[in-house]
Every structure is written in structure tokens, then in C-alpha cells.
Amino acid sequence: MVLAKNTTVYLQTQLGEDINLSELIVKMGTNRNQLNDAFKTRYGITVFAWLHEKRMTLTQKLLKTTTLSILQVGD
Fold first, then answer.
1. 3-state DSSP: the chain helix, strand, coil percent, rounded to 5?
2. pLDDT single digits (tens) 20-52
3. Where are the beta strands (DSSP E) in the chain?
4. CB 47 within 8 A of CB 36
5. Of 44, 51, 70, 71, whose CB is crowded by the most CB atoms within 10 A?
6. Residue 54 phi, psi (nearest 5)
7. Which of 22, 65, 66, 74 is nearest to 47 (CA)?
């Protein structure tokens, strides 16, 4: 699923940003149903579940490997 892969590449660069579904589907040139179907087929989860997992992984990494406070990482 090229759509899912292209979306993950884009989202990796936007992990710290607010992501709006309407803007995301325009950016990816698709619609909500196609995007969610592509993600569920490729990853077994929704776009925002995938995004949440990646953000939590990044948060864990930052807390373990930097001197940033929890508040700083949260921002």
C-alpha cells in the first residue's frame, strides 16, 4: 500500500506537530476512508493509533537518552 507508506514517511517528519485529519487527507491526495483502509490493511491500526504509537516511542527514547524534563518532552 503506497498510500500508507507515503503517509508514514510524511508523519515521521511531523511527530511533534498537531495533525489534522482534514489537512492530512488533502496532503496525501486521498479521502478518510481510503487512508484508514490503507492503514488498517498495512499496519492493522488506524492512522492516529499508528501516530500515537510512534509518538510514545519517541517520548520513551527522549526520556531515556536526553536530559529534557517530562514537560519539555511533552511539548
1. 75, 0, 25
2. 999 999 999 999 999 999 999 999 999 999 999
3. none
4. yes
5. 51
6. -65, -40
7. 22
Whole-number Å distance between alpha carbons of 23 and 61:
28
24 — phi, psi (to 5°)? -65, -45
Question: Is residue 1 scored above 80 in pLDDT?
Answer: no
| Amino acid 49: pLDDT | 95
The Cα–Cα gap between 46 and 15 comes to: 16
Spell out the residues 6+ positions from residue 9 whose beta carbon is closer than 8 angstroms to its own. none
**Element of type H or E holding 8:** helix 2-12
Nearest-5° angle of CA 44, CA 46, CA 69? 110
pTM for this entry: 0.83
- Please compute the mean of the pLDDT values over residues 64-72 and round it to a whole number: 91
Give the three cell numbers for residue 61: 527514547
